[in-house]
Design goal:
Elements: E1 4-8, H1 15-23, H2 29-35, E2 50-54
Antiparallel strand pairs: 1-2
């Protein structure tokens, strides 16, 4: 079972900026659109729209080669 966050849009917010805010990856825009079939697929979203933001596991960054205090 997936977990979700809730996001309420502000006027003229865009799918790509929401993907960047939560995932730091605009390519995750399609995941947001698929998770919100009720939302319009338009360049700008209306204010007050409730969106489900799927929580995804972020890849772990390698600490190989870093000094001990940065690991």
């Amino acid at each position: 079972m997936s977990q979700y966050l809730e996001h309420i849009t502000i006027e003229n917010q865009r799918w790509d900026t929401i993907a960047w805010k939560y995932y730091r990856d605009v390519s995750k825009m399609s995941l947001l659109i698929e998770s919100n079939p009720h939302a319009p697929i338009t360049p700008n979203l209306p204010a007050g729209l409730k969106l489900r933001i799927p929580m995804i596991e972020q890849p772990q960054q390698s600490t190989y080669g870093l000094p001990p205090w940065k690991q």
